[in-house]
Design goal:
The protein has 212 residues and is mainly alpha-helical. It has two domains: 35-87; 108-205. The longest helix has 28 residues, at 56-83. The chain has helices at 13-24, 27-31, 36-51, 56-83, 108-120, 124-141, 153-163, 168-182, 190-205. It comes from Microbacterium ginsengiterrae.
Amino acid sequence: MIGLAADPYAPDGDEARRWAEQELQNPRYADAKPTWFDHLAEDVAEFIIGLFSPDAGERAGSTALVIVTVVIVAALITVLILWGRPRPSRRRPRRDSDLLGERDDRSAAQLRAEAERRARDGDWDTAIVLRFRAMARALLERDIIDPAPGATAQAIAREAAETLTAHHAELAAAAGAFDRVRYLRHPASESTYRELVATDDLISSARPAVPA
């Protein structure tokens, strides 16, 4: 048998390995690798095929439960992303908003206490302004009104009267007393202040009208 002569162009082991590594670095081989989507599609196909396997009936109950759970969770996540967390239906009082031309975040109780202090000092003008603000703040805290920024005393009285329909006259009179002191600079009196206090007490205990 005639022996084959060694091929002078055949690479040795190290060189052959180097050639193979260089060839595999060619971009066309990387492009041919399966992507994450290919792997996902393969997993889904295997799952669907598995549903029709002989022992699929034994796993049907647990598999269906898993699928339903995943669908519900996915739906909830989608709703939260699109619409955000549910918000409470009852709005919070806008304690930090402008009220009757003043940015005063004091509560109705605090404003009433300050009005009483001014009344004891005989400062009826300031006492009336503070007492009407206290009444407006109380209406806001009870969610009876939701005035726009810059709303006047008359606007607040009209909005409150839409709910406290039986006290329209008292609310209008209280707003008039506030306007005469605050804007027209008419001097106030103790009797005017006491009338406003009585109106504030009346409104504080009044029940909103029930819609027909």
